[in-house]
Amino acid sequence: MSRPAVTPSPATGAVTAEFVVTLPAVLLLLAMLLSAAAAGITQVRLEEGARAGARALARGEDPAAVQDIVARLSGSTAAAVISADGGWLDVTVTDRVGGPLGASIPWTLTARASTRSEASE
Fold it and tell me: Cα separation of 121 and 117, whole Å?
């Protein structure tokens, strides 16, 4: 007994073509989601570094110690700027976003914390 020949339907390659067309969009969406997650994590790290740096300044730590604290909490690529205005001390921490799109998009995040000086004058 011989089997009848199966003729391919006109829609046989349609699924493959649709997959090829949608794959770049899915990959772009995934890259965007990963970059957004990396940005969120970076922002949290920057805020924590700025808060800890401001607390250290308020206790009377020197700027080098504050830079070390910020680098430990926010990452070695984070830059901290310390400023004083009257009795207020400010720590501003900036860093670029990592991740798949972070290297190609110049995306810089900033966190700032202010406190009054508690050191005896």
Answer: 9
What is the tens place of the pLDDT at every residue in 6-28? 666 666 667 777 888 899 999 98
Q: Tell me how far apart the alpha carbons of residues 56 and 85 are, in angstroms, rounded to a whole number.
A: 17
For the residues of 88-116, what is the DSSP string, one character each?
Answer: EEEEEEEEE--STTTTTTT-EEEEEEEEE
How many domains is the chain built from?
Answer: 1
Examine residue 24 and state whether it is found in any structural domain, yes or no. yes
CA 57 – CA 113 distance, rounded (Å): 11
Residues in the chain: 121
The model carries a pTM of 0.77
**Which residue range is the domain that position 71 belongs to?**
17-116
